[in-house]
Please model this.
Amino acid sequence: MDTMSVRIETDRLVLRLPRLDDAEAVSHYLDDYGVAGNLARVPLPYTLSDAQTWLHSRNVSLPPAETSFIIATPDDACIGVVGFHQGREGIVFGYWLGRPFWNRGMMTEAGAAALDWLFENSLTERVLSGVFAFNAASLAVQHKLGFTEIGRSSQVCLARGGELEHIDTQLTRSVWKARR
Model:
C-alpha cells in the first residue's frame, strides 16, 4: 500500500506522514526524560541526528503495519507520533506526545484515528501494545481506546537504562468495531 497521500483530520489534530523537517520538533520533545522515560526504544539524550535517522527510515511505501504518523496541530506543528510496527507476535501500537500537550485528550483522539486507519487498511485481527507499569496515564489512554490487559512482562527502557515491569495489552478488531 502506498501511504504517500495519507492525511487524517480529527476535531483538533492532523495525522500525516513524517517529513525530514519534523526532526527539530521530534528531537526537542523526545529529549525530555518525562517523554523518553515512558518509551522502550528511545535513548536519552535524544539528538537531532537521532530524529533525522528515524525520519529517514519512514518510507512512504511501508505497509500499514509499519506506518507512523506525525501528530500535528492544524497549523502543521509536530507535537507527537502515533503508529505501528511489526513485532514478533503481531502489529504493535505505539505513541508519544510532547509534554506541553499532555492531559488534553489529544493522545486518545490521535490514537483512535490511527486505529481506525489501521483496521480499514489491513486485515489484522488484533493490535498489541502496552505500558510501563508506572505509566497510569498511558494505560488510561489505552483503556479508553478499548485495549485490555493480557499479561505482564519486563521490557528494557533505554532512557531509564534498565529493564522495567511492563503491562501488556491488546485490542481486537471485533472490540474496536463494537466500540465505533
